Amino acid sequence: MKIAIAGTGYVGLVTGVCLSEIGHDVTCMDTNQQRMDTLQKGIPPIYEPGLEELLRKNMAQGRLYFTVDPKQAYSNADMIMIAVGTPENEDGSADLTYVEQAAETIARHIQKDVVVVTKSTVPVGTNEKIKQMIERIKPANVHVEVASNPEFLREGSAIYDTFHGDRIVIGTENDKAAEVLEELYRPLGIPIVKTDIRSAEMIKYASNAFLATKISFINEIANICEKVGANIDDVAYGIGLDERIGLRFLQAGIGYGGSCFPKDTKALVQLAGNVQHQFELLEAVIKVNNYQQSLLVQKAKKFFGSLYGKRAALLGLSFKPNTDDVREAASLVIARQLLQEGASVIAYDPIAVPNARRLLGSMIDYTEQIETALVRADMAFIATEWDMIKTLPLQQYCDLMNNPVIFDGRNCYSLNEVQSYPITYISIGRKEII
Ligand code: NAD
């Protein structure tokens, strides 16, 4: 199949690379010239395990192209996938500017019958608007069908998820479009959920809202554990073994971040509000998460009294391990709060420093060596559970820091292990070791 992808970010690029890997002829289009110049050289602009190899392989085999020219991408495609960003507006609703621009450009350049598939996360009703928009502009002799095919990949394991996802959701009102999409995905052997467009759009928001709820739930239980002297690790394990609950997404910590959960939860609250439904549960989930992201600095203030003049090592910048994405990461909140409190910050991350620097600038120092961050630090804040952070021997904190005080936002170390070192260790939902 000849596939064009509108938007070559995390979702568009990974989708394009994976579809070319299973034999399709894929042209990725983006309005960002610099991004496409880099990609044309075989260099991925994002970090994702396994991406670079597959990118180079499929480019070399002539199945994967990158362009900023919409005519080249769209005019001859059998299927066009929209994977542009849907950031949040000030009121929390989804900003559909890029989706609308992409739909308009597609409509102006298509020359043959095509199925337009939306992978971007969009509010219920958006695909219908996309169809109307394209219908108004497209050439009269060209037939267009629209389908919703929300994306569930996780950053950090995006390639794996594309090939081994739990399900593929196809929402369309048209049997032919459903068939074309089923044919596209059949080689992956992943269960397919076929539904109407509105339900498909809702599945994406409901999935993310549920996962965010699970995180805020366990974080609230952790906060209570601290007050009643229980241990969240044991509590989470004890409840998670119940198959109806499950162990995944039950790690207490400093909240969710990234480019999806924060904006999608807010967008669903707005979407519900638009139909006069106040989504109180999800509002509480968001509130708990905001509180949780600032929890470590609160704990530090409580411990030290004042953070003024203290040197902080911030360990981990990306919103989760194995990605260089720092959007809405708890680390950003921690860095800004520490600066406000008059502390100086040196941040370590193995790969996310360039992205963090774009957002935080020179307000803090950066390093890609964990030891450099810890040298003479008064306090260490663990914001991301990278392997190299989780496995850092505790002796290193003792050797490098002034008087080791660790605020662990990801519960990387077991309390038993910490107890045998002269370390002050304050984590989430567990006894403080002072
Ligand atoms: P991104 O910001 O990484 O990439 C979006 C790309 O679209 C950018 O490169 C931008 O230049 C390009 N673009 C903007 N307007 C364009 C246009 N008119 N034509 C062509 N390209 C255009 O975004 P992302 O993280 O890949 O997310 C894309 C969508 O997928 C969002 O709706 C997001 O919510 C959803 N999603 C993301 C993830 C994720 O983990 N990142 C997972 C599931 C779903």
TrEMBL record:
<comment type="similarity">
    <text>Belongs to the UDP-glucose/GDP-mannose dehydrogenase family.</text>
</comment>
<feature type="binding site">
    <location>
        <position position="155"/>
    </location>
    <ligand>
        <name>NAD(+)</name>
    </ligand>
</feature>
<feature type="binding site">
    <location>
        <begin position="249"/>
        <end position="253"/>
    </location>
    <ligand>
        <name>substrate</name>
    </ligand>
</feature>
<feature type="binding site">
    <location>
        <position position="121"/>
    </location>
    <ligand>
        <name>NAD(+)</name>
    </ligand>
</feature>
<feature type="binding site">
    <location>
        <position position="327"/>
    </location>
    <ligand>
        <name>NAD(+)</name>
    </ligand>
</feature>
<feature type="binding site">
    <location>
        <position position="86"/>
    </location>
    <ligand>
        <name>NAD(+)</name>
    </ligand>
</feature>
<feature type="binding site">
    <location>
        <position position="30"/>
    </location>
    <ligand>
        <name>NAD(+)</name>
    </ligand>
</feature>
<feature type="binding site">
    <location>
        <position position="263"/>
    </location>
    <ligand>
        <name>NAD(+)</name>
    </ligand>
</feature>
<dbReference type="GO" id="GO:0051287">
    <property type="term" value="F:NAD binding"/>
</dbReference>
<protein>
    <recommendedName>
        <fullName>UDP-glucose 6-dehydrogenase</fullName>
        <ecNumber>1.1.1.22</ecNumber>
    </recommendedName>
</protein>
<feature type="binding site">
    <location>
        <position position="257"/>
    </location>
    <ligand>
        <name>substrate</name>
    </ligand>
</feature>
<dbReference type="InterPro" id="IPR008927">
    <property type="entry name" value="6-PGluconate_DH-like_C_sf"/>
</dbReference>
<dbReference type="InterPro" id="IPR036220">
    <property type="entry name" value="UDP-Glc/GDP-Man_DH_C_sf"/>
</dbReference>
<dbReference type="Pfam" id="PF03720">
    <property type="entry name" value="UDPG_MGDP_dh_C"/>
</dbReference>
<feature type="active site" description="Nucleophile">
    <location>
        <position position="260"/>
    </location>
</feature>
<dbReference type="GO" id="GO:0003979">
    <property type="term" value="F:UDP-glucose 6-dehydrogenase activity"/>
</dbReference>
<feature type="binding site">
    <location>
        <position position="204"/>
    </location>
    <ligand>
        <name>substrate</name>
    </ligand>
</feature>
<dbReference type="Pfam" id="PF03721">
    <property type="entry name" value="UDPG_MGDP_dh_N"/>
</dbReference>
<dbReference type="Pfam" id="PF00984">
    <property type="entry name" value="UDPG_MGDP_dh"/>
</dbReference>
<keyword id="KW-0560">Oxidoreductase</keyword>
<dbReference type="InterPro" id="IPR001732">
    <property type="entry name" value="UDP-Glc/GDP-Man_DH_N"/>
</dbReference>
<dbReference type="InterPro" id="IPR017476">
    <property type="entry name" value="UDP-Glc/GDP-Man"/>
</dbReference>
<feature type="binding site">
    <location>
        <begin position="152"/>
        <end position="155"/>
    </location>
    <ligand>
        <name>substrate</name>
    </ligand>
</feature>
<dbReference type="InterPro" id="IPR014027">
    <property type="entry name" value="UDP-Glc/GDP-Man_DH_C"/>
</dbReference>
<keyword id="KW-0520">NAD</keyword>
<feature type="domain" description="UDP-glucose/GDP-mannose dehydrogenase C-terminal">
    <location>
        <begin position="313"/>
        <end position="415"/>
    </location>
</feature>
<feature type="binding site">
    <location>
        <position position="320"/>
    </location>
    <ligand>
        <name>substrate</name>
    </ligand>
</feature>
<dbReference type="InterPro" id="IPR028357">
    <property type="entry name" value="UDPglc_DH_bac"/>
</dbReference>
<dbReference type="InterPro" id="IPR014026">
    <property type="entry name" value="UDP-Glc/GDP-Man_DH_dimer"/>
</dbReference>
<dbReference type="GO" id="GO:0000271">
    <property type="term" value="P:polysaccharide biosynthetic process"/>
</dbReference>
<dbReference type="GO" id="GO:0006065">
    <property type="term" value="P:UDP-glucuronate biosynthetic process"/>
</dbReference>
<dbReference type="InterPro" id="IPR036291">
    <property type="entry name" value="NAD(P)-bd_dom_sf"/>
</dbReference>
<feature type="binding site">
    <location>
        <position position="35"/>
    </location>
    <ligand>
        <name>NAD(+)</name>
    </ligand>
</feature>
<comment type="pathway">
    <text>Nucleotide-sugar biosynthesis; UDP-alpha-D-glucuronate biosynthesis; UDP-alpha-D-glucuronate from UDP-alpha-D-glucose: step 1/1.</text>
</comment>
